[in-house]
Amino acid sequence: MSKFLKAGVVVAAVVGSAVIADIAESAEIAEGEKVFRKCAACHTVGEDAKSRVGPHLNDLFGRTAGTVDGFKYSAAMVAAGEGGLAWDEQSLTQFLVKPREVVSGTKMAFAGLRKSVDVANVLAYLKTFDADMAATVATDEAPEEASAAAETEETPAQPAELPSADHDGPMKLGRLATEDEIAAWDIDIRPDGLGLPPGRGTVAQGEPIYTDNCAVCHGDFGEGIGRWPVLAGGQDTLTNERPIKTVGSYWPYLSTVYDYIRRAMPFGNARSLTDDEVYALTAYVLYLNDIVDDEEFELSPDNFTEIGMPNEDNFIPDTRPAEEHYAEKTEPCMSDCKPGPVKITMRAQVLDVTPDGDEEGGGAID
Ligand code: HEC
Ligand code: HEC
């Protein structure tokens, strides 16, 4: 018995160290996948990866900089590639820390990763999408737990049985949406707070989330980088010839801020934030706009509707349905609606602003 046990222990120890190495590796990859969320606003990887704001990042290792077919690189990136820059562990590490120092004039609007562990992890993740490098990464052997856990988060549970296509539409096409599908789609939030999910978040919690996920485009202070939208300031400019319309200067209701961030941001990676993160970010956007000034301010459904936006009073409710001629019961007037004789004040004119095209076509638009 004891002999058997010892042998068992030795085997376990040997297998154990291999497993530990694999676990470490798959943990790196799982962390790297999280870091990649910052890149996902602009880059894609994986099977159907396409170039978007930035080139796709499949098979990156060994790629000469600036050479993905069909992607419009900056002149600087193309020149760097022609000058011999190819992507490997070292050049990528330098580029991801300070993109503009490695390729001065690059159009990658990304400040760079601050932590070297983030760089190492994101590279481990990118290797799994590289045909040549994947062999060196033991993804197949790696225990499933880390990646499986990440996946279950993403993949919505399949409803056990989908409703069949036998509903009574005229075409008998499609099927009724399931409750889960409707719940996933029905996420709008009304100014009176209806639709707010449970959750909470403070200004202080929002700051690092904002810095990591939003500042690349909207700037550290919401000032907007390049031509990305400005999120703060602009108060007192609404009557100017060129008003600066921001969340703070223009938006009437806080519910729109929460709804918009949850629905659409970060740009290119929408719906990736938790409800708590959206509360924290909404609180932080309020802070950037000086609407709250306490970093410990916590936003939740309890105090949400107490926050008034500065421009709310300049929005007026649409009362037309209550006006007489819109009201349901009143028939619209169709004849002799204006008392007294009719006077013609103006006649319609043919302005003929369409540039001459080919005569037969009768116009320039095909
Ligand atoms: C705001 C959009 C944006 C974000 C965020 C972003 N990138 Fe980029 N990236 C670009 C653009 C645009 C280019 C093309 C640059 C050029 O042509 O100068 C690029 C180029 C690259 C290249 C060079 C690829 C090639 O084909 O030569 C690499 C590598 C890269 N990005 C990696 C990353 C990684 C990793 C992250 C996240 C840590 C990231 N990028 C975040 C927009 C972005
Ligand atoms: C890759 C760039 C990018 C990133 C990253 C990004 N945004 Fe945006 N954001 C945009 C663009 C583009 C728009 C305008 C979209 C439109 O008008 O269709 C926008 C619009 C907005 C607006 C509405 C502004 C207005 O006045 O219309 C808010 C609020 C906002 N973003 C918040 C955020 C938050 C919070 C984050 C981080 C979780 C974030 N964004 C990350 C690009 C980005």
Automatic annotation (TrEMBL):
Signal peptide positions (record): none
Record flagged with keyword Transport: yes
Superkingdom of the source species: Bacteria
Disordered: annotated span: 139-170
GO molecular function: electron transfer activity; heme binding; metal ion binding
InterPro entries, per the entry: Cyt_c-like_dom (IPR009056), Cyt_c-like_dom_sf (IPR036909), Cyt_c_1A/1B (IPR002327)
Keywords: Electron transport, Heme, Iron, Metal-binding, Transport
Chain ranges of the Cytochrome c domain: 27-130, 201-289
Keyword Protein biosynthesis among UniProt keywords: no
Pfam families linked: Cytochrom_C (PF00034)
Protein name: C-type cytochrome
The organism of origin for this protein: Oricola cellulosilytica
